[in-house]
Amino acid sequence: MNVVMTEAGKFVEIQGTAEEQPFSYSEMEKMLALAKGGLEKIFEIQRKVINGTNGTANAPEAKGNKSLGSLGDVLGDIKI
Question: Can you give the residue ranges of every domain in the chain?
Answer without folding.
Answer: 2-75
